[in-house]
Amino acid sequence: MNENATIWSPMMSSLVMHSWAVEDGSFLRLNNLTIGYTLPKSVMNKLKINSIRIYASGYNLWTWTKYTGYDPEVDVFSSNPLTPNVDYSAYPRSRTFVGGININF
Question: For residues 68 and 44, what is the distance between their CA atoms, to the nearest angstrom?
């Protein structure tokens, strides 16, 4: 039925939206997580320090999705209300890790 049909050509002057590019963009994301440990007061008294806290944080740790692009929270190329949530291949979000020690004297 659609023999020799095309929906895109380099000679086209405008972008054509078509249903073949629509997919489920639902997702569940673990965006940030921080874990920490404060040393007990018995140890702090021996060191003559009020408190020591050790911590680690992670950002953009995991995204569960069946979306085939980099990020289901897609980049919008234009402010045209007729093309909301169109994925224009933006860079993926970076995964970041931070760690530290808080010492109070």
Answer: 51
Phi and psi torsions of 36, nearest 5°: -150, 165
Tokens 């408190």 correspond to 51
- What string of H, E and C letters represents the secondary structure of the chain? CCCCCCCCCCCCCCCCCCHHHCCCCCEEEEEEEEEEEECCHHHHHHHCCCEEEEEEEEEEEEEEECCCCCCCCCCCCCCCCCCCCCCCCCCCCCCEEEEEEEEEC
Q: Find tokens 């806290």 and name the residue.
A: 53
pTM: predicted TM-score of the whole model, two decimal places: 0.67
pLDDT at 84: 65
Contact 99, 57 (CB under 8 A): yes
What is the per-residue pLDDT across 44-99, written as a single tens digit (0 to 9) for each?
988 889 999 999 999 999 999 998 888 888 766 666 666 666 777 777 889 999 99
